[in-house]
TrEMBL record:
<feature type="domain" description="Calcineurin-like phosphoesterase">
    <location>
        <begin position="23"/>
        <end position="213"/>
    </location>
</feature>
<protein>
    <submittedName>
        <fullName>Serine/threonine-protein phosphatase 1</fullName>
        <ecNumber>3.1.3.16</ecNumber>
    </submittedName>
</protein>
<dbReference type="GO" id="GO:0004722">
    <property type="term" value="F:protein serine/threonine phosphatase activity"/>
</dbReference>
<dbReference type="GO" id="GO:0110154">
    <property type="term" value="P:RNA decapping"/>
</dbReference>
<dbReference type="InterPro" id="IPR029052">
    <property type="entry name" value="Metallo-depent_PP-like"/>
</dbReference>
<dbReference type="InterPro" id="IPR050126">
    <property type="entry name" value="Ap4A_hydrolase"/>
</dbReference>
<keyword id="KW-0378">Hydrolase</keyword>
<dbReference type="GO" id="GO:0008803">
    <property type="term" value="F:bis(5'-nucleosyl)-tetraphosphatase (symmetrical) activity"/>
</dbReference>
<dbReference type="Pfam" id="PF00149">
    <property type="entry name" value="Metallophos"/>
</dbReference>
<dbReference type="InterPro" id="IPR004843">
    <property type="entry name" value="Calcineurin-like_PHP"/>
</dbReference>
<dbReference type="GO" id="GO:0005737">
    <property type="term" value="C:cytoplasm"/>
</dbReference>
Length: 261
């Protein structure tokens, strides 16, 4: 009876913090848009310099490949950044999982790859469009091994499922609510939507994720989603964090840095 009379308490936002002196830029789903990535990296560099000295790190949230025109270029750019800067890290998205499984000969995943924008990825690695069209699914799997260099495959196999920094948890898709982090499954970390997106309780960490497209940055009391659909909207988004502050940088809005809201 009391529950009918008393107003329901709204969940309180998590006050997430990074360690003193630490600055992080998380970058959302790129999906083959090397043009937007290069523009965003320039904007981040300018923002980082303007904010003064800090221990700055970059976290790519996954889904480097598919849909956009230059997945190969995106993978190479991120791979070079990770190789040359120890504080640049990248997570594995569901599209990397599909791509690697297809390369390894899983024909069911290869069919899924072709439905999910993978045709553009294959073209970006120099595969011939007519040859792709004529090939059987088995022949196409062999062509991937023939035409895609070993270096990007090795890099994609090395990607992490999650990263923890201070009060923040970085994942591609989300987490299974109520499960300790060490019990989370890769399938959920790379693919989950419900029940994660609608969950309002504290996860123990404030979750930064991509995977689910929203027109604007999707900030809730316990998470923030920064996949703004770069491949179709032209808007690639990064989230900057330092201390208890968060801010948005993206490839639209006149190259300005906007407060997270």
């Amino acid at each position: 009876m009391l529950s009918r009379l008393l107003p329901r308490r709204r969940p309180q936002p998590i006050q997430a913090q990074l360690p003193l002196g630490r600055r992080i830029y998380a970058i959302g789903d790129i999906h083959g848009r090397l043009d937007l990535l290069d523009q965003l990296l320039d904007q981040i560099a300018a923002d980082d310099a303007a904010r003064g000295a800090a221990q700055t790190g970059f976290i790519f949230l996954g889904d480097l490949v598919d849909r956009g025109p230059d997945s190969a270029g995106v993978v190479d750019r991120v791979r070079d950044l990770c190789k040359n800067r120890p504080d640049v890290r990248c997570l594995c998205g569901n599209h990397e999982e599909i791509f690697l499984g297809s390369y390894d000969g899983d024909t069911d995943l290869l069919r899924l790859l072709l439905r999910a924008g993978g045709h553009e990825t294959l073209l970006s690695y120099g595969m011939d469009a007519d040859e792709i069209e004529r090939a059987t699914i088995g022949e196409l799997a062999e062509m991937m091994v023939r035409d895609i260099p070993e270096q990007p495959i090795t890099f994609l196999r090395s990607l992490q499922d999650y990263i923890v920094e201070g009060d923040y948890l970085f994942v591609h898709a989300g987490i299974r609510p109520g499960l300790p982090l060490e019990q989370q499954k890769s399938r959920d970390l790379r693919w989950i939507r419900d029940p994660f997106l609608d969950h309002t309780a504290n996860h123990g960490k404030f979750v930064v994720h991509g995977h689910t497209i929203s027109e604007r940055v999707d900030e809730r009391v316990n998470r923030i989603g920064i996949d703004t659909g770069a491949y179709r909207t032209g808007r690639l988004t990064a989230l900057g964090m330092e201390g208890g502050e968060r801010w948005i940088i993206d490839t639209v809005d006149d190259n300005r840095s906007l407060p997270a809201s």
